[in-house]
Amino acid sequence: MIWYDKDVVDKCIYNLLSNAFKFTGDNQKISLLVQKTVADSGKEYLKIIVEDSGIGIKKEEQEKVFDCFYQAESKPSFQAEGSGIGLHIVKEMMLLHKGFVSLQSEFGKGACFSLYFPMFESEYQPDDFFIETTSDYTTNSTGHPVPELPNSSEPKAKSAYSILVVEDHDDMREMLYSELSGFYTAWQAKNGNEALEILEAHNIDLIISDISMPYMDGIELCTLVKTNVNTSHIPVILLTAKANIESQIEGIWAGADDYIPKPFNLELLKLKVNNILENRALLQKKYKNNLLTEIAKQEVGTESSMDAVFMQKAVEMVKQNLINPDLNGEYLASQLNISRMHLHRKLKALTNLSSSEFIRNIRLEEAILLLKKKEMTITEAAYATGFSSPAYFSTSFTKYFGLSPKEYLLKKEV
User: Fold this and answer.
1) I need a surface site. Which of 26, 158, 191, 304 has the fewest CB within 10 A?
2) CA triplet 22, 24, 29: central angle to 5 degrees?
3) Whether residues 396 and 299 fall in one domain
4) What is the CATH number of the domain that holds 346?
């Protein structure tokens, strides 16, 4: 009895067989064997063995072959150049499946890779199980469904941030997805055209894109993202095999937030992703209680000038309509020539505020300016900034500034 994810098993076996074919010539042997085995701990595993009689792997290279981008120095003359990530994907997927992969090889006499899938339910957590309703899967005789693991076509939610990986190379895309989906909600696209469709349908916080792709390359995608008001706020990291300075300049001119040449260190990529998202969170925090001040600080003409112009227009539109009873997210979106959905996404990304919160906070900051001038009473300031009642104004004011309007005025007099 075994609990397994069909997609993981398929991909692991595919990568091992693909690797075996690369290192095995004509008239040599490749075999696949499935058996049950018992580890030294006494635990039972389903063992899938992929063995070949090819060139084998040198002892000093055996610990490195599972590292991302590593390619063995000893290669047969007939082998095509690989990406060096297939075995890394196998290792990562087996760890996600609570199993492991092992290697036995003698140089010149072939290699034997073994996949170990646990056959004991206690290895999994309750959240690892799900009920598969399609005809491709069935529950086992005990009624237990298979455990859920990352799927290549659906996002795996782990945090509030959502990342889009755009890469035409299947292994590279799958590796990046596998590495990132444990921390973020991850989406995949094979080229720029697919990426634009995902951007339209889903809220994406960061894009990681290869440059060289069919149909639409990464430079064109980045340019379209950064010149469209609906998406200009989304950070873009470009990946490319071109390490020359001209290519890097081209990427930066397209609006890329960072540029990483291949092969790259995965930990460095993760760190860059984390830093970009943390910086965005810091900006959102600044906006929380100083919305007008922070927007006024933004300089038009910088690399994010489209976002700066948008925010300034949004603020001015709210100011001009403070007492307009129709002022809401839908009205603001129409005045800014943007859909309500895209307005919500953009404000959330830049300020972590909904459109209604954005409007309310501007009203409150305008109200406090009026109170500072001492030209209006609290009630007059409330109505002058569009609040429906002094009571609602007082509640909102206290929540935003940490003290009531009366307390604020008394503090100013002291």
Assistant:
1) 26
2) 135
3) yes
4) 1.10.10.60
Residue 153 included in any domain: no
Same domain for 299 and 355, yes or no, is: yes
Q: pLDDT tens for residues 317-347?
A: 999 999 987 899 999 999 999 999 999 999 9
Are 307 and 263 members of one domain?
no
pTM of full prediction above 0.90: no
- Binned at pLDDT 50, 70 and 90, residue 75 comes out as low
Same domain (yes/no): 94, 71: yes
| 252 domain residue, yes or no | yes
Given a cut of 60, is residue 140 above it in pLDDT? no
Q: What range does the domain containing 237 cover?
A: 162-283
Question: Comparing 198 with 20, which gets the higher pLDDT?
Answer: 198
pLDDT digits (tens, 9 = 90+) for 31-62: 999 999 988 778 889 999 999 988 888 888 88
Tell me: do 298 and 279 sit in the same domain: no
* Count of the separate structural domains present in the chain: 3
Q: Is residue 133 part of a domain?
A: no
